[in-house]
Amino acid sequence: MFLVRLLVSTSMASALTVTAALPATAQIEAAPSVYTVNKTGSSVGFTIYGSMIFKIKRDGRFKDFTGELAYDPANPGNTRVDLTVYTASVDMHSTENDQLMKSGEFFDVEHFPTMHFTNSETDVRPDGTLAMKGDMTIRGVTKKMTIPVKVHQGVGADSVFEATFPIDRTEFGLNGSPGYGGFALKIAKNVQIHLAIATAMQTR
User: Fold this and answer.
1) Phi (first) and psi of residue 11, to 5 degrees
2) Beta bridge partners of 134
């Protein structure tokens, strides 16, 4: 359940590798291309599972996020991302639950207006999935996390980065209970996060 501001660490992601002992043609490794998030084609969502007498699934999303991503298909292990989501943009398709999500029981948007993820390294798995290892920060609590990302390579800057992964909401102090039909809903600790980030070439 996190808000997205995809801001790639360009200082890390676009660093040049220089080795004096190598020939001039091999001294500089090409920097990954830097992309911004195309919000029109992107989504940041989550799924909450709960129970009363029967099982319930509730979907939500964040409408406001931003960021950058550095990616080179020839060197996917150099992928870097810095993502920020704005918590006040949470949308549970219910005014009552939207207000609960913004309250101190969940995101506490007054004190913690953003959520953030930035990765420090990327491993390429045998199936081509990128395992992005980094820091997730929600409500001022930072946890180490590895996010599995699938890349759908398009033409030019038109690529999509998709990820679905769980977080333990209680580790970040997200301890409220959404309502359902006038009743409090007992929700599971694990919440599924869904990301689909479409990119656009950054304009300088």
Assistant:
1) -65, -35
2) 119, 145
Q: What is the pLDDT of residues 165-202, one digit of tens each?
A: 999 999 999 987 765 666 667 889 999 999 999 987 66
- CB burial readout 164-184, b (16+ within 10 A) else e: ebebebeebbbebebebeeee
Q: Where are the domains of the chain?
A: 5-18+27-201
CATH for 5-18+27-201 is 2.40.128.110
With the C-alpha atoms ordered 84, 43, 126, 192, is the resulting torsion angle positive or negative?
Answer: positive
What ranges in the chain are assigned the alpha helix state H? 10-13, 95-102
Q: What is the 3-state secondary structure (H, E, C) of 71-114?
A: ECCCCHHHCEEEEEEEHHHEECCCHHHHHHHHCCCCCCCCCCCE
